[in-house]
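pasting for the record
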Amino acid sequence: MVWIGLATGIAFWLHLGSIGLVDETEPLFAEAARQMTVTGDWVTPYFNGATRFDKPPLVYWIMAFAYKVAGVHEWSARFPSALAGTFLAAIGFYTLRRFGFARPAAAIEAREAEAAEKPVPSQIDRQLWIAALIGSAAMVLNPQTIVWGRTGVSDMLLNGCMSGSLLAFFCGYAQPDYSKEGIASHRPKTQTLWYIAAFVLSALAVLTKGPIGIVLPGMVVLTFLFYVGNLWTVLRELKLIRGGLIFAAITVPWYILVTLANGDAFIDSFFGYHNIERFTQVVNRHSAPWYFYFLVVTAAFAPWSIHLPAAFAHLQFWKRSAWQQQPRSSHLGIFALIWFAIVFVFFTIAVTKLPSYTIPLLPASAILIALFWSDQMTRLRSNRFAKVSHIVNVAVLFLLGWAVYYSPNWLGDDPELPNLPNAIRQAGIDVWGGLAWVAVAIVGLILLLRCQGRWLWTVNLVGLVAFVLLTLMPAAMLMDIERQLPLRQLSETIVQVQQPNEPIVMIGFGKPSIVFYAARQVKFIPDPDDVIGDLRDLSTATPPPPSILLLGREVKIREARLRPRQYEPIAESGIYRLIRVRVLVRE
């Protein structure tokens, strides 16, 4: 497992807690988990004194466990995501090492050798190793997985549970169906255990993000079984009643308890708004054209995504009758293709669109890429489609080098990061990152000319590692200094200067990280025109506060029309100011 350790260590664990929580979503999760450790209420999630029914509790529970063991800080908040990514790489490696046959003939030969208690032919064994190494690396070393595996939200945990469930199902489905004597045998115990694991992981996915955790895996499995023509046989193998009871035992108790505690407020918010409405309506202005996910997958899985069309064609999925005649152990490629298609189409149909919704199809993409590349590595010559794919791969590497070098020119419009472009240039991140991609592109061009691109996957892998070490991590630390460090510093000041019964107010765009780092409730006032009226309302509370701590950008404080005589400056950091507002009276 050294390979898994290296890949996931670079992708997730290295410097996992070295930057602060990133507003605006990450602190919502981190603080809700912290509240559970404070209040002892492990059923209803809270943020800033209000219920938070966006997501089920599993991600909060794991964060809270990490808080108890390792302390309340950024590393603990991101622990569930890194853990899920590591698990995904491990089960992906196992599945590909066991069933990652690039061609059905290899699966037949391997099965016959196993039935005869003979070693798997060396060429097939080598191909399986190549598939496992490439696939597990591609699962975690791609831009989107790297980012979300380092972010303390529920998306990567959902991906780990949902994708783990699908891979566990396939491992059960593909177990050898011959005994040592070559005679058909009863269903092996290992198959039963894998099927149970699939139900358990799917249940955990439902406890991570709701019904989608069973809906998508269910659609993938049913479509796959219909395609290969053994739907009813495998459904009987699954023992749905037993699996359903296991699934219900894990998921139902929390849903009952949270409904009893909160009633219609939970049902309307969680099921109505965060599930049904997100699929049928645009939520939070997250709309996009129908082709949105074509662009997202291309960028999020780059540069591996360049080879997805060739990987699709390699499977010859249009020959359904031929696939139905192949042994189960050869079906991993077509299973991954259906997995990819179901998730892609499902979220393309959904009205609300977010880039993170495509994360559950990335493991399937990695499997398809692994089978494609392992086949390339064991063939003497590449076909024309593969050659075109290799050429585009090298061109994209050069393009990535140019994009990283030019990136500071695209970062000057964010008012919260006014100095970031210059900081990146001064640190040389644009130069070193661009040179790294250009260097691997040149190596890729040499490989393309000398060995028809069979080793291009190593260039992609090295390029992504260099991207993490030379570009992503240094840039993230600079962004943290510019964007989040001032808020953490002012949160510490709030803890030091807050007087008894003194409210905390933030005006303008609210930053939930203040609630986490100050460990206090904060009133957010988005519209500066509402500031004076809301402050007067706070001043009339019982008991009346001595004053009000107000945090905001300098421009928002001016827009609120607070006069200098009405407040005193306390501290400032970056673009933010902390002031103490005297009790306002009507004029």
